[in-house]
Structure formats: C-alpha cells, structure tokens
Amino acid sequence: MQLICHHSPFGANTEQPFPTPIFTLMAIYIGSIIYKIYNDSGTQGQSKQFTQSDRQQTTGSTSSPNGVATRPARTSTTANKSPASNGLWTVISGIPTPGSWLASIGTVLVNIILVLMVVDLTFGPKWFYPSRDLAFARVGFVSYNSAKILVREPSSTRLPIALEYRLQPEQHDDTYRDWTLIATTSSLEPNNDFTAAFSIPHLIPETRYEYRTSTNHTGIFTTAPSPGHVSSSSGTFTFLHSSCLIPNFPYLPLRHHLSIPGFTHLAKLLPRLNAHFMLFLGDFIYVDVPRRHGTDRETYRREYRQVYASPDWPSVSDSLPWIHVYDDHEIANDWDKNTTGVYHAANDPFTHYQASVNPPPVRDGASYFTFTQGPASFFLIDTRRYRTPFDGTDGRWDNASLPFEKRKSMLGSQQRDDLLSWLGRKEANGVKWKIVVSSIPFTKNWRFGSEDTWAGYLGERRVLLDAMWDAGEGGYGVVVLSGDRHEFAATKFPPPASGEHPPGESASVGKEEQKVLAGRKWSPDVAVHEFSTSPLSMFYLPVRTYRQEDNEDVVLKYLPDGNSKFGAVNIREDGRLHYQLFIDGKEAWEYSVELPKGQGAKEGSKGWKLWSR
C-alpha cells in the first residue's frame, strides 16, 4: 500500500524518511526553547526595571495632597499564577515556563529521552548487533525419510564443518546408538554468507533423531509419518503457520534489541502441540521498517542474521523444523517489480538461509515448492516474483480476445499451470487434503490495500477456485493458508449454485471460457476455506478493513487484535481438519472442516485444463 504500508504505521516505503522528521522537530523544539529562555530573561529584566520605576511613580501619586491616586499599581499576571499551575502547563505543553524550572527541565528531558528511544529502535540493531560472527544450525524440511540442516559458521579456523546424526538415545549415556557422518564441507564462504545446507537421507518414518556439527551445534528432529498416514502415537498430523515478525516490538528500551516476544508465546505452547513443522508465510524480516538502511546484499543478509541471532530463536527451533516462503518485506513494500531492482540482492539471503533447506522446488530455478507429508499435499506459491505489476484494476478476465499470457496474473503462466496441474492430480492413498500456501490473502474481503492481495487478480483467482472445487468433487479438501495483514480472518468460498457468476458481478472470465464452464455445478460441500493468520510478533491494526460485501467470500471469523498470532492445523485419522487459533499465547478460536463427500470428477469438470493450454 502506498500510504505508508498496509501493515505498518511507521513507514515502509523505500523512500520513507523516518525518523528524519522526528529529528527535525526535535531540533526546532530545542531551538524554540533556547529562544524562549533568552527572550524571557530579557523581558524579565525590562519588566523589573519598569516595575521599580512604576513603583516610584505610584508611591508619589498616592501621597498626593488631595488623596486621589493618579495611577493604580501594576501587577504581574505571571506572578499571579501558582507554581503548581505553571508546572502543570509545562508538563502538558512541553513548553518551559519561568518560575517552574524543575518541571521545565523535566519535560525537556522527557522529550530528549523519547527521541533517544526512537534512535535506539531505528539504529540500535544495526549498530550493536550486525551479527557477522553468528554461528548456528537449524532444521529445515523434514520428510518421512530425509531431513535438511542449515549451518552457519563464519570462522575459517573451524573449517571443515562435519555433520553427524543418530537415533536419539533413550538415555544420556547410551553408547549403542553410534553417530553416522553425513558430510564434511569447507564451502562456507562470503559468497553464501558462510552457510551450508546438509541433507540426511535414508531415515525411518516417525522416528526421533538428533544431529550435531563439528562446531558443537546440536538439535533434534522427528521424521514425518509415511505419505497418507497420520502420527501413529497421536492419531493426528499437526503443523503450524504464521507470518510477519520484527525484533523488539512492542518496543521496550531495556529489552534485548533482538528479542522477539512472539517466540516466547510460541515456545510455551510447542510441547502440547506436537507440531511437525512451522510454515512461515513471509515477512520473516522487515528490511524497510522502521527505516531502510540500504539496498545492498549485506543489508538484507544482516536482517536475516539478526532474527537467527535472537536470544528467543533457539526456543522455537531446537525441535521444530521451519519452512519458508517470502513476501514483500523481504524485498520492498508491496513488491510487484518481478526480478528487477533490489530483487537479486534481496533473494540472495533468502536462497541461502531459507530456500536451501526448503522442500524441493517444483522445477529447477523456480521459487515455489511442493511436498507431501502425512495426509496432506502442499503447494507453496510465490506471489511476488511472477506477478503482473499494479494497474489499478481488480484483474478480472473479462476481455476474451486478450491472450492468456497477457492477462493480469499473480502467478505467471508457468506457476499457474503447475498449480493447476497439482490441484488436478491424484494423490497417494490416504492423502486427503490439498493445502495452498499463499503469502498474501486469497480473500477479497480486506478493503484497504486490496490491490496487493488476490483482490487485485480476480480473474486468475476464479480460475484457481474452479480447479479447487473440482478437486473437492474428486474427494479432496482444499484449504488456503495465508498471512500478511496482521489480523486473523477465516473465510469460506462456496461454489456458485450453477456455472454462472453471481448476479450483479461482471464475469471474471471471458465469453469463451464461460461457454466451457456453462452448466457446471459443484456440490456445496466442496467449498474452499482460507485461514489468514498474522503477525507472529508484530503490531496489529486498530482500523478494521475486513468485511464481507457479497456471497463469494463468506466470513467465518474475524479477530484482528493481538500482537502475536499463529494457527495450528490438525488433520485427524478420520480426515477431519481441525483449526486452532492462538493469540498472545492463548487459544482464541477453533473450527473444524469436513472432507467433501467426493462424488468423483464429473464429465467436463476438469475445467482447469482450459487454463493450462
């Protein structure tokens, strides 16, 4: 959003001058105080002289022989004000007042301290925590038979780095379970910011392992159930999702600059949730909030290092794998410029710190990913790299003469084709859910900054919904997970009663496509559900902008408040999907979605093939 940021009250545009206006106002404030003190001291000197002269004249007049006072005595208005009222006015206005110097000095100091806090918030992490010496290891994607581990070690004296793993011992001194060396590498160098990704193959499903590096980093992970199965111990399959975090918010001057309060809430709940992984849906960094410090590769890298250097990071990563997509603030606010400008500098650390230990990309060179785990198949889309730039429209495909490749698109033709193929494919036995992961909301119900969401790409969205409803007819439940808006909303997308579009709405597809879709009808139980949840650790918006205005996007729940939100998705053995929302460390809402009955794909219902031509 071009005002400041649709999710930032203190600036996110690359040209945002924050906190320069504050410094300017402070300079004016100090200057005006100096002027007032100087001016008041001169005025008081003149007033003193005038009072003495006036007193003499007044005394003379009152001693007139006829007893008539020729001039009344003058009284200072300021002198009539009590010290308490002067002090109160000083505190309220911030303007020093003669006669109340204690309050005056206090209010000036308060303003100076506030400005210093702004400086600390804005520049403190950069000055004090560049985190160049950060060394750590974390778990990335863990499948039923493999795991990926990221290691960072900037010290050349500790190379080469070796990674070993073993079954987690049942006892601390268990020597029966020997360590297995996976790999040794010396390729940690400035070009990759001293990172390396390790892969551990040939693992056993639903088994707990521990790993260690030659640099004394250790951790544990549990492999996933086999595809199509839930956990044999709990009878469920659970994973988490959220997005958006920034260190030290809300700001506390005595708290560690890199502290992330949302991690504290998450860490307390992890033992009871038994989650297999965290899906983080973008805005892992805010390179442009509260102020952009540069556009070079090192600026972006520093932001990632600072999150991983947070004292709270180990508590949410020692046993929880993290999988990532990026959104705009990993690049620049409301990014729609594809791979131009700062994209390559921004993508460099995402590649090394996140994508290198993500699930495999759909195709070589792509920045979108897919994987199957337990009873669900996942498609992690890229909503930034391939999109058509903003054009001021809602992106309906109502011009049938326009070639498909020239129509407004969030995904680009190749990613759209891959997503449609994934939605239409048959999954392994026992895989009952298709989870679409989008960094930005799929619903159009957010009415502020909607052009940055799928509300600005309604033609392509309708194509995807058709394919999702088709998947429902095939027996798969379809859920969209999103973030970005610093609020929570659950939205339902029911299929239309017929192949026609809702009354009063202009078609989001052209006439040619309408002919293909004409007469199609989906069962009501194939409705798609979206759970949009954020932030994990950031501010929420006090202004309400989410509302339902038609029957296409149906509100299930809207909970905007809370600086820390995340969702837990539980898929049970009977196929039911149960969603739990946690706000500021407490469960705030829950909801269950049943699998569609699955009548099987009807003749002509594979309308998605039309779009993949």
From TrEMBL:
Taxonomic superkingdom: Eukaryota
In what residue span(s) does the PhoD-like phosphatase metallophosphatase domain sit?
Answer: 262-552
Span list, region Disordered: 46-84, 492-514
Q: Record's Pfam families?
A: PhoD (PF09423)
Q: Where are the transmembrane segments?
A: 18-38, 101-123
Keyword list (alphabetical) reads:
Membrane, Transmembrane, Transmembrane helix
**Keyword match Transmembrane:** yes
Matching CDD domains: MPP_PhoD (cd07389)
Checking PANTHER family in the record gives:
ALKALINE PHOSPHATASE FAMILY PROTEIN (AFU_ORTHOLOGUE AFUA_5G03860), PHOSPHATASE, PUTATIVE (AFU_ORTHOLOGUE AFUA_6G08710)-RELATED
| UniProt protein name | PhoD-like phosphatase metallophosphatase domain-containing protein
At the highest ranks, the source species' classification is:
Eukaryota, Fungi, Dikarya, Ascomycota, Pezizomycotina
